Each structure stands twice: as C-alpha cells, then as structure tokens.
Amino acid sequence: MDQEKEESKVKYKISKNDNDREVIEITKEKKTAKEKIAPYKKEIAPHKNKILVVCVVMILVIVFLLGHNLRKYQDYNIQSSYDRKDGAESNYIGYNNNLFRYSRDGAFYTTFDGELIWNYTYEMSNPRIDMCADYILLYDEGGTQISILTPTGFKQNIKTSMPIVDAHIAKQGTVAILMQDGGVGHVQLCDVNGKVLAEGVLHMSNSGYPMSIDISDDGENLAVTQLDLGIGNTKTTVAFYNFGSAGKSKENNIVATYSFSNQIIPKIIYMSNGNAVAYGTSEVVLFNNDSKATIKDEYFVEGEIKKVFYDDKYFGYICDATDKNGKLINQINVYSQIGIKRMQKAVDATYTDVSIMSNGEIFLSNGTDVAIYTLKGIEKFKFTFDTSIYNILPQEGSKRYVFIQEGHTNMVSLR
After folding, report:
1. What whole-number distance in Å separates Cα of residue 240 and Cα of residue 268?
2. What is the pLDDT of residues 153-199, one digit of tens each?
3. Are 288 and 296 in contact (CB under 8 A)?
4. How far is CA 262 from CA 231, 234, 265, in A?
5. Taking residues 10-34, what's their average pLDDT?
6. Residues 6+ apart with CB under 8 A from 241
7. Given the DSSP bridges, would you call strands 254-261 and 267-270 parallel, antiparallel or unpaired?
8. Which helix (H) or strand (E) is 71 found in, with range?
9. How many whole angstroms separate alpha carbon 194 and alpha carbon 159?
10. What is the per-residue burial (b if ≥16 Cβ within 10 Å, else e) of 285-311?
C-alpha cells in the first residue's frame, strides 16, 4: 500500500513497482510569488512610510537639480546699486571677494559697494595682469616695470633690463619673466622680493622669437614658446624647464623640447595640477605633469582658433566649425585640466571677450551683448545692455551676480 508523508514542505511517496521493489518519489512544494515575498513584506511594513518619504525626497531633489541646471534667464532684478567713477580703459576682476580695478595709471582695491581698501599708483603703457593664490602680478607689456600686490596692498617692484614680453607668478611669489631686445630673448626667475634666482639667454637666431612663458603653481616648472620664421616654414618651439630634482642633471634645466611645424603657439599656461596647455592657431596641446613633460593629448580644429580662455581647472577655446548643414559657425570647446571634454556648443553671435568665472560658468561679451553658459552647454543667461558691461562676477547662489557696468556696480538676481 502506498504511503505518503510530508516533512518540512517536502512530500515523498513510497510505493512498489512491478518487481515488488519499493520506490520513493520525492516532490518539493513550489511556493507562489506572494508566498516568497511575504516574509519581506512583514519586515518592510513598519518602514513603509519612511521609504515612501525617501523616494519622494529623491524625486524632488532630481527635479530641483534638473530645473537648476536647465533653467534659462532673460532678465534680472537689481538688489542694490553703487555709483563708480571709472578711469580711462579700466579693467575689473574679482579678487578675494572684492573688486580690483587696474588701468594705465594705477590700481584700486575696493569692496563692491565702493569702499576703498587700498590703492597703488604707477604708470604703465600696456598693463597686463596675472593672479595666483593671494598674489597679483601687474606688468607693463613692452615696458620694464613689474609690481607684486597682495590683499594688503603693495609688496614689491621689479625693474627689468629689457622690454617685457610676458610674465607670471607662482603661489609662493616666484616670478617668471620673458623679455626680448633686438635679436636676444631673456628668461629670468625672481623671488617675491625681486631677487634673481635664475636667468638665461635665448638667441633668436637659434630658437626663434619669444612669445609666451608660464610657471607652475609650485614654482618648480617653467614653459616657454618661441616662434621661428624660417624660409618656407613657420615653426614654434616649446621648451620645458624644471628647477627641482628632475632638472638638476639637465643642461640649463631643460627637460623637454618640442617643435610644431606650420603652427604659431602664442600662449602656454599651467593648470593647477601641473599639466600645461599650449594654444596654437589651429591646435591645442595638453602636456603631462611628469619629468619629461610628455604630450597627453592634441586637439585639432578644422578652422582657426579665435579666442582662448582658461582658469586653474579648465581650458577652452572658440574656433571655426561646420554644422551638420555645412554652415560655418563659432564653436565653444571646454576641457578639464586632465583633458576630458566638458562642453562643446555652437554660438550664434560673435563675442570679443570670453572667460571662465569662478563658479565654472562661461561668460561671453562684446561690450553690450552678454551670455552665460553652464558647463553642460546650457545658455543660462542672455541679455543686451544699453551701456557697456565690463565684467560679471558670480556670488553665492545660482542666480546672484555682480554686474560691473559703465559707471556703476549692480548686485543682481536673475529672473
């Protein structure tokens, strides 16, 4: 006689076959989907409301972030306004959460509402500026005067023996100066007190006309570009110097030299991570921060590079490009300091000035027409002013900015 038993949800049946032998048939009971999740439902039930709240909050955060990143503004409200007396050909930048103005005859450091912190008088025909950490370097391009400034005011003057081509400062105050007179170029390194640390001659007959210099933030690496207008060929040489352990055994501390045929490279800069970026007429080259300054990447454009811009984290340029319909356009390209493309965007207007603001947004202007783009390529703000606007400085909050307009400073909120 068949016997059927059940133990722990497993059924087995004992029977005899034709040869009178016992046969055991085992079957396991299958659970339904509801039965499988039942234990979990019991555990989740007490936390059901909490999970629902978390899900709702996550959805709201996502919606907020999407709205924040995609929102466009076409107007603004003035929160406060301050009159300002502008000097001839004044330039304005943000510096330590205040406003720094410089021109041919002096520099003024003020709060945004116009309160003077300090001023410094000088005479320069073509003043240029470089900033690193708390230092501001003012130099007279084509002249012989350099001034080092800090948040507390004047620090040091440096008088050069030749006309200045380019100059930059490191975060500890080391100054790199590129000079040229006649057929001779000259590179000089000075400390923050003006003491000469190193110098060398660049014979233009051998290496070409000096164009650009920069020094890494730590003051250890130096890069120089020189243009050689040879017969039938335009060539730019990029030389890298190291004043640390990597360059001690090298002649004149030169660790690497590169030549780029049919290319003019009028600008080279260092990023905060030590990588260097060389801007050419139709090519941008990214160099690694290693002992030989090896090439990390090269970016070629189909047309001409019209504008370059950068800060210590991003580098970019505006160039000619062709859209899918074959139309010639202006294209913005932005990369991170390690060479990752962050933005590529066509713009339908011609802008004379472009810069990266402290919040990572791109500011474009032609004097009265301005636009602000995010690194996602979103045109965040576009406006045409009645008077000239010199600069836009971001403040805390995604909609708050300082508009440096002709004759006054406006604290605004976009709408």
Report:
1. 11
2. 999 999 999 999 999 999 999 999 999 998 889 999 999 999 999 99
3. yes
4. 12, 5, 10
5. 59
6. 187, 221, 222, 223, 224, 247, 252, 253, 254, 255
7. unpaired
8. none
9. 9
10. bbbbbeeebeebeebebeeebbbbbbb
- Report the C-alpha gap between 355 and 229 in whole angstroms: 31
Contact 255, 240 (CB under 8 A): yes
What is the rounded distance in angstroms from the CA atom of residue 319 to the CA atom of residue 278? 15
CA-based nearest residue to 275, from 312, 238, 318, 237: 312
Rg (CA), the chain: 32
Q: 272-316, pLDDT tens digit by residue?
A: 999 999 999 999 999 999 999 999 999 999 889 999 999 999 999
Given a contact cutoff of 8 angstroms between Cβ atoms, the answer to whether 331 and 355 are in contact is no
Please enumerate in sequence order all residues whose Cβ is within 8 A of that of 128, keeping only pairs 6 or more positions apart, or say none.
Answer: 138, 139, 140, 141, 167
**CA dihedral sign, ordered 245, 246, 249, 254:** negative
Give the Å distances, CA to CA, from 54 to 43, 75, 205, 235: 17, 36, 71, 61
Q: Which residue intervals of 45-118 are DSSP H helices? A: 48-70
Q: Of 135, 132, 192, 143, whose CA–CA distance to 166 is shortest?
A: 143
> What are the backbone angles phi and psi of residue 139, rounded to the nearest 5°?
-140, 155
Hey, what amino acid is at 126? Answer: N
Q: Which helix (H) or strand (E) holds 387?
A: none
Tell me how far apart the alpha carbons of residues 222 and 67 are, in angstroms, rounded to a whole number.
Answer: 44
Cα-Cα end-to-end distance for the chain: 88
Are 336 and 310 a contacting pair, CB within 8 Å?
Answer: no
**Would you state the torsion angle of the CA atoms of residues 382, 384, 389, 393, taken in this order, to the nearest 10 degrees?**
-20
Residues paired with 107 in a beta bridge? 102, 120
- For 321, counting Cβ atoms within 10 Å of its Cβ (0-12 exposed, 13-18 middle, 19+ buried), the class is middle
Task: Give the count of beta carbons closer than 10 Å to the beta carbon of residue 40.
Answer: 9
Residue 4: enclosing H or E segment and its boundaries?
strand 3-7
| pLDDT grade for 136, boundaries at 50, 70 and 90 | very high
Query: 145 near 122, Cβ under 8 Å?
Result: yes
C-alpha span between 100 and 92 (Å, rounded): 6
Q: In terms of pTM, does the model score above 0.90?
A: no
DSSP string computed for 5-36: EEETTEEEEEEE-TTS-EEEEEEEPPPPHHHH
Give the tokens for residue 81. 């306004």
